[in-house]
Amino acid sequence: MARIYYATNRRLVAGSLIPFGNRYNAEGPAFYRVGYAEVDRVPDAADPDDGFVLRSVTVAEEHPAPPGAPPSAELIGSTGVFASMTQAVRDESREVIAYIHGFNSSFETCILRAAQLEASWRVGGKAPLVFAFSWPADDGDGLGLGESATTESKWKYFGDRDDAEASGKAIGRSLKRLIDFLLELRREDRAQGREPCGQKLHLVTHSMGNWALRHALLALRGFNSGARLPKIFTNAFLMAADEDADALEHNNKLGLLPQLAEAIHVYHARRDLALIISDTTKLNPDRLGAWGPRTFDGLDSAIYGIDCADVCTTGLTHANHQYYRIRPEVIADVRQVMAGKSPDQITGRVAVRSGRQYRIKPRPAG
Asked: pTM higher than 0.90, yes or no?
């Protein structure tokens, strides 16, 4: 059984096994709830998408301070959740992954894919602890990109894109809460003479989750009054990013990310059908997740492009868009990055431009 921690600005649906729907929090898109979900693994599942089942979802209790009580009487759900995460990381020496899902994804889908990462993205034989943010994407059949002729599917993409953008402030608020919590823990460790927790924190964003990340970064900059953001992530993995190919060049897009992350790894595939549709039918510019960064000239030296075109094929309905969680070659590459191997020393890839661009090789058949 895996425990996946989460934050979500989806609307709470009381009394349901899956207590979050596809609309915003009743107080608005900037508000979020936190908690954790228990997930069971399905042994020997033939399809990776059937490999996990959601057992339960716990929503952390929270309430404002009673009238006349001091502010300290307020119960903040994230305090208990982050404390529980910290205890698990310290006790078990686990890495931490913050995960933002893509389009056409329900709360349940987000949790199950986070569980997939927890099971496969192991470092030193230990599963990472995963903290997932689930924004209110609409789930449904198909890719949600308008590949069929129905009005619903044609507009699903744009609806999800609007929801991802509107969720930026909630994601930014949850990241700021996490940053503040980590900084306070470090201060407490120093004050009590303890060795600070040395486990690494990584960021993983998939597909339209990268568009949501853009708006979370802009929100964080606002929360910080324009000051430089603290570098809290060891690695940021931008997977099949449905973002502009020049996004890392501009501070009004993803250009602020090097302030938060020591290294940024852009995994892309020109045969990604979901992004081809996004590019050609949605009037978007070239996609970061299809071609990689438009240029490396002027980019932070710790931004890398990893070409997955030869290892992006998975299930028929995945449209070469889900390789980050399914293809063993990509998983093996990520695990080596998380383990701290230098880019030129990672097995299974070849250098296209040493120190900048690489291509993952397919494993021999059989």
From this structure: yes
